[in-house]
Amino acid sequence: MRKLLDKTLVVASHNAGKIREIRDLIGPLGFEAKSAADLDFIEPEETGATFEENATIKALASARASGLPALSDDSGLAIDALGGAPGVYTANWAEREDGSRDFAMAMEKVEKALREKGATTPERRTARFVSVLCLAWPDGHVELFRGEVEGHVVWPPRGTSGFGYDPVFQPEGYATTFGEMSAEEKHGWKPGDREALSHRARAFKLFAETCLGT
Ligand code: IMP
């Protein structure tokens, strides 16, 4: 495992919601983080079949373009009744013909698919959010960290916090959706804590312990 010695890195993402969350998580550790969007890097095509492959594609592209270590996140929602869909295609389900993203539409698509399967009770609507973080160096070395959080899909959507599919995901053991939680509640982690809640914070905790020794 390679340690991260620099305090400057690139957040290899063009997704504003993810960039905000990664900055929230990395900020308290004293990092200066520019995003691939701030640096006008081209968004690489996500041609992988797994979260790990796509995270690696994104982190390596930013590390090579910047000459700095780069941290990416590839994530998605895997719903049991849909055989793990939308999974690595979670962002694609929100894509409109003009290339823009519409998450209200994506959440409706999920709900329609669940109804078609007759999945109307919480037990039939179990799902997990997955986040794979990849830390890549310009020389091509990569480290990968996976976090998952179990829960179920609710309908109608609840809450306006967060991003993406947050309003329809209720983590196990909680009465609120991610969309109804503050960022601090959703992460459920700060440096030194033993537990984290969100998939991204769980992956981030592994990254911090492994590459930063926190
Ligand atoms: P990708 O990793 O860029 O392929 O996109 C992952 C997609 O999964 C995002 O566009 C979001 O829609 C969704 N997603 C990932 N993490 C979260 C989260 O924490 N909350 C809500 N949606 C998420």
What does this structure look like?
The protein is an alpha/beta fold and 214 residues long. It has helices at 16-26, 51-66, 103-116, 183-187, 199-212, and strands at residues 8-11, 32-35, 70-79, 126-136, 142-153, 169-171. Strands 2-1-3-4-5-6 form a six-stranded mixed sheet. Strand 1, helix 1 (16-26) and strand 2 (32-35) form a beta-alpha-beta unit. The longest helix is centred in the N-terminal third of the chain and has 16 residues, at 51-66. The radius of gyration is 17 Å and the shape is globular. The two termini are 14 Å apart. The mean pLDDT is 96. The structure holds inosinic acid (IMP). Inosinic acid is lined by residues 15, 46, 74-76, 90-91, 94, 129, 162-166, 178, 198, 200.
Topology, element by element:
Blueprint: E1 8-11, H1 16-26, E2 32-35, H2 51-66, E3 70-79, H3 103-116, E4 126-136, E5 142-153, E6 169-171, H4 183-187, H5 199-212
Parallel strand pairs: 1-2, 1-3
Antiparallel strand pairs: 3-4, 4-5, 5-6
The structure holds inosinic acid.
Keywords:
214 residues; alpha/beta; 5 helices; globular; binds inosinic acid
Shape: globular
Number of strand elements? 6
Structural class assignment: alpha/beta
Task: Report the helical percentage.
Answer: 25-40%
Q: Low-confidence spans: pLDDT under 50, at least 5 residues?
A: none
